[in-house]
């Protein structure tokens, strides 16, 4: 009896492992990173809330907060927020024009205001990327120039915050055991900026990442643009500091501008690094401790941290108002365009020759 030999084929392997196992490894590592990040945020949040519950003197705080000047808080704080949004709109417009992308100024401002306000309560303020998707939804922008310019904006913001924090630690806030740490961070920051520009100019990618990279090169490939964007970035963060200063002043806490910049930059970095949405809890702890170092009583310092939280809530309320106003503007614009189209159609029908 003759028989056929059965041939069995084995699946191809990648690095000694099956393709399914090799493909699952990045997913598993990504899941582990997310679990670690969420666990870290929850631990920091729980510790901050526990500290606030145990140390904040709520009875005395209520008495202090009764004396808050609401006109200064809402009027002055609101004006600083709108000015900050206007500066951020100007910066994004400058970067988008470098990519030959033109968006109506009203839509650019409204979109920026809405995204910045609601980004306050997202981890790492990542919700600001919503502005790209909103403009893409309305057909005003594509993703490559939108996200490319957004990443450049994020880089400028982080450099500005780190620089302000390091200078503050050297000149205003004495919390480091050795000033060498601040000098070291500043040195690494300067080297990192130059290294980033070199890598950006020489890195080669393919596909969609290449489009994103080309857009970022267009944004930073011009020295006058770099200088202008740097100046607008400094002005925008200075406006945030003015908003914090006015908010604290409404509650009787009089800080110098240098102290306010120090407080804002350090607390903002703490909130970002904590990965907690909105920095809930950790910003109150950081703010109160820094105000105590500036010489304020514990109750006043704790009231200041709650005032700055109300500044965030005012930010969100103004953002919601801008969202409604933007919808109204777009509705009136579409209605006007609809009437214009109807008029043109009627005119074309009237002028058509009768056969």
Quick summary:
By secondary structure, the protein is mainly α. The protein has helices spanning 19-55, 58-65, 70-98, 105-118, 130-137, 143-171, 180-202, 208-220, 223-250, 257-274, 282-293, 298-351. The chain has one domain.
Write the layout of secondary structure elements.
Layout: H1 19-55, H2 58-65, H3 70-98, H4 105-118, H5 130-137, H6 143-171, H7 180-202, H8 208-220, H9 223-250, H10 257-274, H11 282-293, H12 298-351
Characterize the structure shown.
The protein is an all-alpha fold. The protein contains twelve helices and no strands. The protein has helices at 19-55, 58-65, 70-98, 105-118, 130-137, 143-171, 180-202, 208-220, 223-250, 257-274, 282-293, 298-351. Helix 3 (70-98) crosses helix 6 (143-171), helix 3 (70-98) packs antiparallel against helix 9 (223-250) and helix 4 runs antiparallel to helix 12. The longest helix is centred in the C-terminal third of the chain and has 54 residues, at 298-351. The model is unreliable at 1-9 (pLDDT under 50).
Tell me the total number of β-strands. 0
Can you count the helices? 12
- Strand-and-helix sequence, N→C? HHHHHHHHHHHH
Largest sheet: none
Strand content: under 5%
Low-confidence stretches: 1-9
Structural class: mainly alpha
Integer count of domains: 1
Task: Write down the Rg.
Answer: 26 Å
Q: Tell me the overall shape.
A: globular
Helical fraction = over 70%
Cα separation of the termini = 92 Å
Mean pLDDT reading: 82
């Amino acid at each position: 009896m003759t028989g056929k030999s059965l041939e069995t084929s084995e699946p191809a392997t990648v690095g000694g492992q099956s393709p399914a196992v090799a493909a699952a490894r990045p997913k598993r590592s990504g899941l582990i990173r997310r679990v670690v990040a969420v666990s870290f945020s929850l631990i920091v949040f729980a510790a901050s809330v526990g500290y606030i519950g145990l140390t904040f003197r709520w009875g005395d705080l209520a008495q202090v907060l009764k004396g808050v000047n609401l006109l200064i808080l809402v009027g002055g704080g609101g004006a600083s927020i709108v000015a900050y949004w206007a500066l951020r709109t100007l910066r994004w417009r400058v970067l988008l024009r470098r990519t030959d992308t033109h968006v109506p100024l009203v839509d650019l401002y409204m979109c920026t205001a809405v995204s910045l306000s609601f980004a306050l309560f997202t981890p790492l303020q990542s919700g600001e990327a919503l502005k790209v998707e909103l403009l893409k939804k309305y057909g005003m922008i594509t993703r490559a120039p939108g996200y490319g310019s957004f990443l450049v904006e994020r880089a400028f913001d982080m450099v500005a915050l780190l620089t302000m924090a390091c200078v503050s630690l050297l000149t205003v806030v004495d919390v480091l055991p050795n000033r060498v740490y601040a000098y070291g961070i500043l040195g690494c920051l300067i080297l990192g900026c130059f290294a980033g520009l070199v890598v950006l100019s020489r890195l080669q990618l393919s596909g969609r990442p290449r489009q994103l990279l080309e857009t970022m090169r267009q944004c930073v490939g011009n020295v006058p643009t770099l200088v202008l964007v740097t100046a607008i970035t400094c002005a925008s963060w200075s406006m945030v500091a003015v908003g914090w200063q006015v908010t604290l002043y409404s509650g009787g806490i009089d800080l110098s501008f240098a102290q306010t910049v120090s407080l804002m930059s350090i607390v903002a970095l703490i909130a970002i690094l904590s990965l907690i949405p909105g920095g809930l809890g950790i910003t109150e702890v950081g703010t109160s401790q820094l105000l105590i170092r500036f010489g304020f009583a514990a109750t006043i310092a704790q009231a200041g941290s709650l005032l700055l939280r109300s500044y965030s809530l005012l930010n969100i309320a103004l953002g919601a108002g801008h969202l409604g106003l933007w919808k109204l503007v777009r509705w009136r614009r579409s209605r006007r365009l609809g009437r214009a189209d109807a008029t043109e159609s009627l005119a074309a029908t009237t002028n058509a020759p009768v056969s």
